[in-house]
Amino acid sequence: MVVPRVWRERVARYRMVGKKCPACGKVYFPPRDVCPTCHRESYGKMEDVELSGRGKVYSYTVVYQNVLGYELQKPYIMAIVEMEEGPRVTGQIVDCRPEDVEIGMPVRAVFRRLGEEGKDGVIVYGYKFVPDL
Amino acid sequence: MVGIVTYGSYIPKYRIRTEEIARVWGDNPERVKKGLRLISKSVPAPDEDTATIAVEAARNALRRRRIDPQEIGAIFVGSESHPYAVKPTATIVAEAIGATPFLTAADLEFACKAGTAGMQAVYGMVKAGMIKYGVAIGADTSQGAPGDALEYSASAGGTAFVIGKENVIAEINHTLSVTTDTPDFWRREGQMYPRHGGRFTGEPAYFYHVLTAARKMMEVMGTEPKDYRWAVFHQPNGKFPLAAAKRLGFTEEQVKKGLVTPYIGNTYSGSMVTGLSAVLDHAEPGDRILAVSFGSGAGSDAFDITVTDEMANYDRNAAPGVWDQIERGEFIDYALYVKFRKMLRMGGDPIA
To answer: Which of B37, B64, B36, B47 is nearest to B12 (CA)?
Structure first.
């Protein structure tokens, strides 16, 4: 991930700030500039909304491949999490064994390292999820 | 009244037992367990570092009291394991809790006491009327060289305090410091692991500074050990704080609640502050606390604190307490520990 992108997406990645359509009230994450339902009515009026970070596992998969940068974490869980506010968000589930994850399990967002641009590059931080005990 | 408005701690989930480290290095685990009173220590996950720990600690503080992050005027993060050599951890924390852009932020380093140095800095700024709220965080993912005695204790964790004037749950009655140039422990630039002076770390370093700061505080405040319900001393191991308490005239009962190192190890900049956090998890209005940190190099910061009636209106349960987090640990073996701490030379890594 290049530096300008890391910088541009930091608020969304750090605090899960999405957008809410003022016309229909639907919440989008990642943020969108236009509501795909309300189009013109929403243009320029989409409001920032910080998600609570709480949600439920909608679906998941366990990755056993040696994905670059994730060698130390495999096997790891990638999930689609349905957030309290509605959006479905893709994210890693950590502090959880693959055999313990299940659909419908409550999770909450935590702040973790997502990766780094090599040993001398920028460190990318953002949300992952943990079981919400 | 200036004091703690809210606080929160974060301890990584993973742990390694003293026996497991001793097994690898051929040490007698009973000597470590009895001699240093270390049972286990926390281990950060591969995707955790001082910044992630500091953010989680700060968020736990803000869960317990929902202050407006835009009213935070300063964030200081004390650590000896900042993820960047140049690029502040405090900026990452500020962004992650929504405190940017109108605040000052900086990283501090003073071995194990950088977190309390941050508390003093924001205490002063709040008292002077410069800022409404200041956040001081002590957090670390410390490392001891493999096979060194420090490997049994060097661990990960952190605690955040929000200092302010309104809705104070624990008033800081006074704070003072003792500082000298004492080379008991250091890490040179570019070196991966620290070095220490062995037994020299005890008497002229830890005990001189902790005992002098505690005695000076009691002299200034006109107090005696029996005036405090709780006492917290820096905990490089489980033995030193108990010895310090005994020499000062405190009972084991007064220090037990805040003695977390035997179970999670020495969280360095997070050590004394996490002990204080554990005490605040159980403290009641009117309780007086003496808290003394220690940082090698060397110095101690002492705090005389009184829990206020506001504690009764404060939602401690909105975030997990220190002992709750200690109990949820998951134990790993030395091989996984080596992987988690990134001590393996991977393909593509340089030879030396």
So the answer is: B47
